[in-house]
Amino acid sequence: MAGAKAAAVATVAAAVPTLASVRMLPWARAHLNPTGQALIISTVAGMAYFIVADKTILSMARRHSFDDAPEHLKNTSFH
Questions:
Q1: What is the mean pLDDT of the segment spanning 40-48?
Q2: Which residue spans traverse the membrane (predicted)?
Q3: Per-residue pLDDT, 79
């Protein structure tokens, strides 16, 4: 859920300057067609999603680390 929220925020944060630059900057107007604009915006959203997902997974792993496990789970011997 946190990744989806971050992706939504990143989409807006990337879309505003991308769309504004296409309207105001001659270079961007000449070189960024709608497909390029969509690619920039979706890449930022995807990166935000995976960064937040990775941080969430790492925080959960720290919270449930092997050191905090009960003793019967720490015994990994097969004897």
A1: 90
A2: 36-53
A3: 57
- Asked if residue 36 is part of any domain, the answer here is yes
How far, in Å, are 1, 47, 60, 64 from residue 7 at the CA level?
10, 8, 20, 26
What's the total number of domains in the chain?
Answer: 1
CA distance 12 to 39: 14
Distance CA 67, CA 26 (A): 58
For residue 50, the enclosing domain spans 26-66
The pLDDT assigned to 6 comes to 85
- Distances in Å between the Cα of 48 and the Cα atoms of 15, 19, 21, 38, 79 are 14, 19, 21, 15, 46
